[in-house]
Amino acid sequence: MCQESFIFRSPKLTRMKVPFDSRGIKDCICAQCPVQVRSACSREKEKSSKGVELPKPQDTPRLYCSSGKAACSDLDLKQMCICGACPVWHRHKLAGAKPTLHFCRDGAAR
Ligand code: SF4
């Protein structure tokens, strides 16, 4: 079974507001965010997942609005979240979600 079909069949993950899919991974701007640009852990995940169409959530510093809190512990969580400039955030109307921003810190959008 491919990873994508597992995700959409999982009862827990089908309740996600934002799907964890390759389109979202491609469009997400989290990797450029001030919260994680200085994170060695995030930079390593970004490097190792480059070119992977659909990495595992814990292997990419992207799409936290779907997968929830970041696996890396060296993020600078006091910096401003740039999700408001992200195509994924607009596509899924996350201005009306909870939380609204800082999904890497506060968990997935619901
Ligand atoms: S969820 Fe927001 S704060 Fe966290 S990395 Fe993405 S854009 Fe930055």
Notes on the structure:
The protein is mainly α. It has one domain (16-106). Helix content is 33%, strand content 0%. It contains 6 helices and no strands. The protein has helices spanning 3-9, 22-27, 40-49, 64-67, 87-91, 103-106. The radius of gyration is 13 Å and the shape is globular. Mean pLDDT is 90; it is low at 1-11.
Strand and helix order: HHHHHH
How many strand elements? 0
Give me the secondary-structure category. mainly alpha
Query: Share of helix among residues?
Result: 25-40%
Work out the oligomeric state of the chains in this entry.
Answer: single chain
**How confident is the prediction overall: mean pLDDT?**
90
Ligand species: iron/sulfur cluster
Gyration radius, in Å: 13 Å
**Percent of residues in beta strands:** under 5%
* Low-confidence parts: 1-11
Span between termini: 27 Å
Q: Based on CA inertia axes, which overall geometry fits?
A: globular
Q: How many domains is the backbone divided into?
A: 1
Largest sheet: none
Descriptive labels:
110 residues; binds iron/sulfur cluster; 33% helix; 6 helices; mainly alpha
Write the layout of secondary structure elements.
Elements: H1 3-9, H2 22-27, H3 40-49, H4 64-67, H5 87-91, H6 103-106
Bound molecules: iron/sulfur cluster.
Iron/sulfur cluster binds at residues 30, 33, 35-36, 64, 81-83, 101-104.
